[in-house]
Structure formats: structure tokens, C-alpha cells
Amino acid sequence: MSERVIPIISQPLGNLPVPEILPADAWQSGQALRDQRNRPLRDLRISVTDRCNFRCSYCMPKEIFNNDYVYLPHSALLSFEEITRTAQSFIELGVEKIRLTGGEPLLRKNLEILIGQLAALKTLDGHPLDITLTTNGSLLARKAQALKDAGLKRVTVSLDGLDDTIFKRMNDVDFPVSDVLEGIEAAKAAGLGPIKVNMVVKRGTNEQEILPMARYFKGKGIALRFIEYMDVGATNGWRMNEVMPSSDILKLLQAEMSLMPLKASQAGETAERWGYLNEHGKHEEALGEIGFISSVTKAFCSDCNRARLTTEGQLYLCLFATQGYDLKPLVRSATDPKALTQAIAAIWAQRDDRYSELRVSEPMTDNDAAPSSTKRKVEMSYIGG
């Protein structure tokens, strides 16, 4: 077995200059904003903290994120008012959905206040924002009702297995599965739904949990989604031989369960959806569904409509980005309230990112790292999932 090499990192990465002007006729107020591949801006992921209480090997391995790791000081973080003001600019450009991420977002003190501020915003069509949150579930049981009361619509919970030994090995902080399941039940009782559960499948680590997870969540009104282990950042030691393709997961499930493909629920959806069939061979919504997020083996760059804002105001246009744009000076400047919106529009209008498509197009052996591994990519813990 080859020795695992953990690079030393320091966030954030270098930033690209914010464009001063829009390309000619790229966007005018009230018009749909499109990037270079004609993709609209609809979904904004906002990281509210770079801290997490788990040490999952595929995201924040303990070898790097230990007691000596230096996190962002509180003064560097955008305030709730600054985040809300930035979100308003994104909404003016077409954003309809905001997902709060981390790190672990529930570690951000008084997060309910931010959710309440975001819930007061309206889309260009005058509709309420779709406000969601991704969490590891560790604090969800005690916070679910307050989150709902503040205006949160839905939650996605990360859970990589039901077996306590395997789950504790993956979160690497000895956190029990039962507490996460309790959080999911609390979210369901509070009306934070439909709930999604994300399982990152890493070959040689937790693939034996695929069937138990599918059996457990079937009929619970929860969408279970299997995520291919991705080459995000530089700290997880990613290799292709640790990826279990979604096609293999589907075959494993179909050997025991009857499933049928479902249509995408919305444009730009990352997961391919499959529904459980009842004894009559018909899809039954009450049985729930399964999804596959396959950015390693089946890229979905062509309709990606997501931007990502870090907790200190860096804008990234791709989960696998090597550089971002520093919006903080514009966010904290009160001289021209339209300048931030114009800058974001200019950045999106020149966007041409399609990392996963390029990776898929290049042949890789089992032991290969990602083709662009010579360029250090932003860490998932910093940019949000």
C-alpha cells in the first residue's frame, strides 16, 4: 500500500481580480444573467463558518485540522447583515435558492437570526426564497424547531453509515450514529422537509453500509443520496481507486430492490433520482427515493447554476476551483450599493468552469489523482459542500 501524503495547506487561495465592468450587453437589470456556457445563476451556497466538530477523512482529516490548525478569526467573517446584503445582490441576479453550509453551519452562534433575515427576502418574482441547510446532524436535535421557526425550509443531513464503528471511524471524533438519527427525527417533527440524507461512499471504507442505509430510510419519507468520493481540495489524499461509481452502487441496490428512474425535480439538479417500486411494480412516493451524485464518473457541469460564497466573502464559481474573487471590500463598502451586484454579474458573465467534464474526458488509472492536482483546489471545509 502506498504511503498517504498529506499536503500542508493555508486558506484562502489566491484571488482573481474582480472585473471592473461587465462584458458588453452581458446583463441588464431585469434580464436573465447567463455565463459563457449559457448557465443561469439560481443557487447560492453560503458557508457561515470554516469550523466543524467532525474530522471526516474526505473533508477535514485530523492530520491537518488538528489543535495547531489556525481558523479564521471572528473579525474576518461576514456579519449576518453583510451576508444578507450580499444575498440580496445575488437575488437581483436571479438566485432563488440559498443553502447554508460550513464547516458545520450549526456551530455559528445565533444562526437563527441570519435565517430570519434571509427569510424576509423575496425572489425577482416576489416569491419566498428556498432556504436550506446542510449539517452533520450533531446539533440538529436541539436546534431543529428554532431553525424552522426562523424560516428554514429544509435540511440535508450528512450520514455515511449506520454501523457505529464505521461511522465513528469516518467522523473520527467518536460521535455516535444514534445522535444523528435523533436529529433527523427532530427535523422531521419540526417540518423541515423533505429531508435529504447524503452518504459519501468511499471504497474500502464504508461501501458495506450502502444496503443498510437504503433499507433503513425506505418508507421514511426521506431522500437518500449516494455521493461519489470527490477530489475536492488537497488534504484528503484522493485517488480514483477509492471511488465507487454510482453505476456500481445502483447495481448493488437493484440486486435487492426494485427501482425506477425519476425525472429531475428542477433545472440544474445534481442528483439522478430513482424511486422505489411497490409490490405492483409502480413507483410509490411514500416509499421515498434514492439519488446519485456522480461528479467523478458522470459530470453535470453543463447545467450547473451554483455559486459559492465563503464565510469571509470569497466568491467561488466551482466546487473544484483553484481561485476565487474577494467580494469583502465591496460588501463592506457603503459608497455604491449597486457596485456589489454589478461585480457579481461581471464575474458570473465570464464564468466558464467545467472541471468535472474535463476530468471525465481524461483517462485515469485506479491510482491516479485528479488531472489538475498540480493546482491546489479550495478545501470543502472552506467553500462548503
Descriptive key words:
13-stranded mixed sheet; TIM Barrel; 11 helices; 13 strands; alpha/beta; 385 residues
Structure overview:
By secondary structure, the chain is an alpha/beta fold. The chain has a single domain, classed as Alpha-Beta Barrel (TIM Barrel). 26% of the residues lie in helices and 15% in strands. The protein has eleven helices and 13 strands. It has a 13-stranded mixed beta sheet with strand order 1-13-12-11-2-3-4-5-6-7-10-9-8, covered by helices on one side. Strand 3, helix 2 (111-119) and strand 4 (130-135) form a beta-alpha-beta unit. Helix 1 runs parallel beside helix 2 (111-119), helix 1 (80-92) crosses helix 9 (337-349) and helix 3 runs parallel beside helix 5. The longest helix has 14 residues, at 177-190. The chain is globular and about 60 Å long. The two termini are 30 Å apart. Residues 1-10 and 370-374 have low confidence and may be disordered.
